[in-house]
TrEMBL record:
EC number: 1.1.1.31
Name of the molecule in the record: 3-hydroxyisobutyrate dehydrogenase
Top-level taxonomic group: Bacteria
Originating organism: Halocynthiibacter halioticoli
Family from the record: Belongs to the HIBADH-related family.
Gene: mmsB
A Pfam family it matches: ECH_2
Keywords tagged on the record: Branched-chain amino acid catabolism, NAD, Oxidoreductase
Classification via SUPFAM superfamilies: 6-phosphogluconate dehydrogenase C-terminal domain-like, ClpP/crotonase, NAD(P)-binding Rossmann-fold domains
Length: 640
């Protein structure tokens, strides 16, 4: 029996989901019927536009058939679940990019997979009983099917609120949040469809549009923005705990029932999408990183069991609270999948890569590229060649015939020396991508030399440290031409979670040293404050609770707290073994002051930070310690 009713009606192609007893939940069988019809009609000149609706009173589509996926997951058929998600996501992207207008008529429940089916249409219609939501955190998943893109586009921090709490949107809320476009009472839908079939003109939808009944979320935006703007899920919870209001109480109650892993990953995904303005394919690729691993490594199986199988609504999550979820776990769940990844092309294009500099940062970066299926030839004078990376006999050997040569080197002088060695052997049109942190002038000199050889060049220093290099969560600040940036982007997407094209040659280095000057200064201030709080008799946890949710908020406080046992896990909890070594901060501060001097910029705080880290590293045993080890330094000192 068919699960959809696909037919041509006048000038439109009309698809009705016909699984009302299951609230039109999207199963593998339904997907197999739906996708070919959509692809055929995209090429059919007799179909002016497509209309999608659902049979029954309760739901347009209440989501993907997660009970079916649970059965696969608990019977050793994980590959079936992964295949379903891949095919579903491909349909989501194709709907988003569909060459013709699609009118989705979304009544009743529109959840999860239903959002992926209806909310990527060009003309999204809701009615008086529409209830739209992304409830995945309830079952241990993340807002997928492009849901993180929709949430990231919502006003203010509404996306975080809806994604974490699984809040339901009525018609006005859905329009306000960007999940729908037009309100038309359901009683008028038959006339709307008839007119669309007669004319084939999508503008007809607007003529039927009416003002929806008032929603509830727009008046809540001040509270939502105040409490859901944190860098992490832990920040959000801490902010909610600072006030005892009806809003915060309801939010905390809601959060208490959701999967901690899912909520942490949801916040991370929304932030990645918003910060990078990712394409729909890249959004789905990042979501698939989680769902591919969901059955074996997350709360998904337990969440579905508790909610839909046994229906006891008493899931036993892997972690008791969001504070217990290690950040490294979220990074690992969102790492690139390599050959198993989701992409627009079924098999991504393989590049030949030369990688020069395989130390603490370069080694794991090269490994991630090799794991993604690229042919990587690596060279380093000292560091061992990682597994899966081909060992080159020399820098020239690594660079020869490579599509892209990546360098990760200690300083500008070495970069210029290596560039002088490899540029003559690089093939025409290849790209030199330097990920080292060096002075701006060296970056510009190498770029100029590459361009004279007819090569592309980009400087792309990184932020994220050794952990980020291993996890594939680095941030790249890129300088160079648009052409060079586009050539490097597929590799940047594997090695990191975010890249920003900052401008012409040297702009990446400029952004990096400005960023790290701020980082060095704020870490010193954070450490000073904790040391002073100790002497004032203020409990460190109490100080963190106040500062992390008020005007003293900073990355060095909230995400990388220098006080052991306070806030998220950081190097302070591991005897200050370096995530970002103090000597590297000293190097970056030195570069910032070198640049400041070259352009006559007044940077007294940067200059003072340089002097303090210089003393700490060279005279006070700070070498080999994390840059946050400034805290024990200040603890031992009195006022000078």
């Amino acid at each position: 029996m068919s699960l959809i009713h696909a037919r041509k009606q006048g000038k439109i192609g009309r698809i009705t989901l016909t699984r009302p007893k299951a609230m039109n939940a999207l199963s593998a069988a339904m997907l197999a019927e739906l996708s070919p019809v959509l692809r055929d009609w995209a090429e059919d000149d007799s179909v002016a536009l497509v209309v999608i609706d659902g049979e029954g009173e309760k739901a347009f589509c209440a989501g993907g058939d997660v009970a079916e996926i649970h059965t696969w997951g608990t019977s050793g058929q994980v590959e079936k679940a992964q295949k379903f998600w891949r095919e579903e996501y491909r349909m989501n992207a194709e709907l988003f990019e569909y060459p013709k207008a699609i009118v989705s008529l979304m009544h009743g429940y529109v959840m999860g997979g239903g959002v992926g089916l209806g909310c990527h249409a060009s003309h999204r219609v809701v009615c008086e009983n529409s209830q739209i939501s992304m409830p995945e955190t309830v079952i241990g998943l993340i807002p997928d099917v492009g849901g993180s893109w929709l949430l990231g586009q919502a006003p203010g921090r509404l996306g975080e609120y809806l994604g974490i709490t699984a809040g339901r949107m009525g018609p006005a809320d859905a329009i306000f949040a960007g999940f729908a476009d037009t309100y038309i009472p359901q009683s008028e839908w038959p006339a709307l469809i008839e007119k669309l079939a007669e004319t084939g003109d999508f503008n007809v939808v607007d003529t039927f549009g009416q003002t929806p009944p008032a929603g509830r979320y727009e008046p809540m935006m001040d509270d939502i923005n105040a409490h859901f703007a944190g860098e992490s899920m832990g920040d959000i919870v801490r902010s909610l705990r600072t006030q005892d209001t009806d809003f915060t109480s309801k939010c905390l109650d809601s959060i208490a029932s959701k999967s901690p892993i899912s909520m942490c990953a949801t916040v991370e995904l929304i932030h990645r999408q918003r910060a990078s303005n990712l394409t729909i394919w890249k959004v789905l690729e990042q979501e698939y990183r989680f769902t591919h691993r969901a059955i074996e490594e997350t709360d998904f199986i337990e969440g579905v069991r508790a909610r839909l199988i046994d229906k006891d609504n008493a899931p036993v999550w892997k972690h008791e609270s969001v504070e217990d979820v290690p950040p490294v776990l979220i990074s690992r769940l969102l790492m690139p999948l390599g050959k198993d990844g989701f992409s627009k092309e079924e098999k991504g294009q393989t590049m030949k890569i030369g990688f020069i500099g395989l130390g603490n940062m370069g080694g794991p970066m090269a490994t991630n590229l090799a794991n993604a299926g690229h042919d990587v030839n690596g060279f380093d004078l000292v560091a061992p060649c990682p597994e899966k990376v081909n060992k080159a006999a020399s820098a020239q050997d690594a660079a020869k015939d490579a599509d892209i040569v990546i360098t990760m080197l200690p300083n500008g002088a070495i970069l210029k020396s290596v560039a002088e060695d490899i540029l003559p052997v690089m093939k025409d049109g290849a790209c030199l991508l330097d990920c080292s942190t060096v002075d701006v002038e060296s970056a510009r000199a190498v770029s100029e030399a590459a361009e004279k050889r007819g090569l592309l060049a980009a400087d792309a220093p990184v932020s994220g440290g050794i952990t980020g290099a291993a996890a594939g969560t680095l941030t790249f600040m890129v300088g160079g031409s648009e052409e060079a940036y586009k050539a490097a982007l597929p590799l940047l997407d594997i090695m990191g979670q975010k890249s920003v094209h900052c401008g012409d040659a040297g702009a990446g280095q400029a952004a990096k040293i400005c960023n790290n000057m701020i980082l060095g200064v704020t870490m010193i201030a954070t450490c000073e404050a904790f040391a002073m709080a100790d002497k004032l008799g203020l409990d460190r946890q109490k100080m963190f609770d106040v500062v992390s949710t008020s005007s003293g908020y900073s990355w060095t406080m909230n995400a990388y707290c220098p006080a052991p046992g306070v806030g998220p896990q950081s190097p302070a909890d591991n005897d200050y073994k370096p995530g970002f070594a103090a000597e590297l901060m000293l190097k970056d501060l030195g570069l910032s002051q070198q640049a400041a001097e070259s352009v006559d910029a007044d940077t007294p705080m940067g200059k003072m930070a340089l002097a303090l880290y210089e003393k700490f590293v060279e005279d006070e045993d700070g070498k080999g310690m994390d840059f946050s080890a400034m805290l024990p330094r200040f603890e031992k000192r009195g006022r000078e």
